[in-house]
Amino acid sequence: MASQLRLRSALALVTGAGSGIGRAVSVRLAGEGATVAACDLDGAAARETVRLLGGPGSEEEAPRGAHAAFQADVSEARAARRLLEQVQDCFSRPPSVVVSCAGITRDEFLLHMSEDDWDKVIAVNLKSIFLVTQAAAQALVSSGCHGSIINISSIVGKVGNVGQTNYAASKAGVIGLTQTAARELGRHGIRCNSVLPGFIKTPMTQKVPQKVLDKVTGMIPMGHMGDPEDVADVVTFLASEDSGYITGASVEVTGGLFM
């Protein structure tokens, strides 16, 4: 059906594609017809995602229309720029959809948090989004192409969370960065939006003690945690022309938590 191929001409770059939300986003975008460039710090995980999509599994062997996997530490400026170069070399065009899903946690109370844990979370969760957004936007503007950039933030970036000063700050930064990018890039036909997941069943939330998960689940009006696919559905909408007049938005996917 046509509704299942809203992205049939799109090339989508997804960072953090090796697991969780990033993998679900990759699967959903491919299901809508997009060609996916799946990137992760763990190259084997990225290749596994591509295998699930039916692609060959590496950038060296990606025929036209096939998906490809890339390994990069997108918190490093040189690596982020090189990633965009590799994607363009591989597919002969810049990605028209860019989804930044890479993220980590290093939880600790403010009174005891180390500078290293602060710096690492800011680097992966915020700096990487700046670097990827900048490199992707430069590639799109240079080629005269329109695009949709979607950055994964978190509801924690809006309301905070005990033990997550670094994570909350990084995700709040993503919201502000995305809104500003939307203002600057709109005239180039590039839309920028952020998605704010709540508690989603991912490897990240698997680290949370069960008693905490039970308490949080009890606060969710819909009565259960979300699945990565719930976030992927929203990302796909924002990637498609169905959201063609939406930019600078922050869409919450929380089951009503903290509304």
TrEMBL record:
Enzyme class: oxidoreductase
A GO MF term: estradiol 17-beta-dehydrogenase [NAD(P)+] activity
Coiled-coil regions listed: none
Keyword tags: Fatty acid biosynthesis, Fatty acid metabolism, Lipid biosynthesis, Lipid metabolism, Mitochondrion, NAD, Oxidoreductase, Phosphoprotein, Steroid biosynthesis
Subunit text: Heterotetramer with CBR4; contains two molecules of HSD17B8 and CBR4.
Protein name: (3R)-3-hydroxyacyl-CoA dehydrogenase
Family: Belongs to the short-chain dehydrogenases/reductases (SDR) family.
Cellular localisation: Mitochondrion matrix
Claim: Lipid metabolism is one of the keywords in the record: yes
PANTHER family listed in its UniProt record: (3R)-3-HYDROXYACYL-COA DEHYDROGENASE (PTHR42760:SF83), SHORT-CHAIN DEHYDROGENASES/REDUCTASES FAMILY MEMBER (PTHR42760)
Reactions it catalyzes: a (3R)-3-hydroxyacyl-CoA + NAD(+) = a 3-oxoacyl-CoA + NADH + H(+); 17beta-hydroxy-5alpha-androstan-3-one + NAD(+) = 5alpha-androstan-3,17-dione + NADH + H(+); testosterone + NAD(+) = androst-4-ene-3,17-dione + NADH + H(+); 17beta-estradiol + NAD(+) = estrone + NADH + H(+)
A Pfam family hit: adh_short_C2
GO cellular component, one term: mitochondrial matrix
GO BP annotation list: estrogen metabolic process; fatty acid biosynthetic process; steroid biosynthetic process
Pathway noted in the entry: Lipid metabolism; mitochondrial fatty acid beta-oxidation; Steroid biosynthesis; estrogen biosynthesis; Lipid metabolism; fatty acid biosynthesis
UniProt keyword annotation of Repressor present: no
All residue ranges annotated as the Ketoreductase domain in the record: 10-203
Main location as per UniProt: mitochondrion
This enzyme's EC code(s): 1.1.1.239, 1.1.1.62, 1.1.1.n12
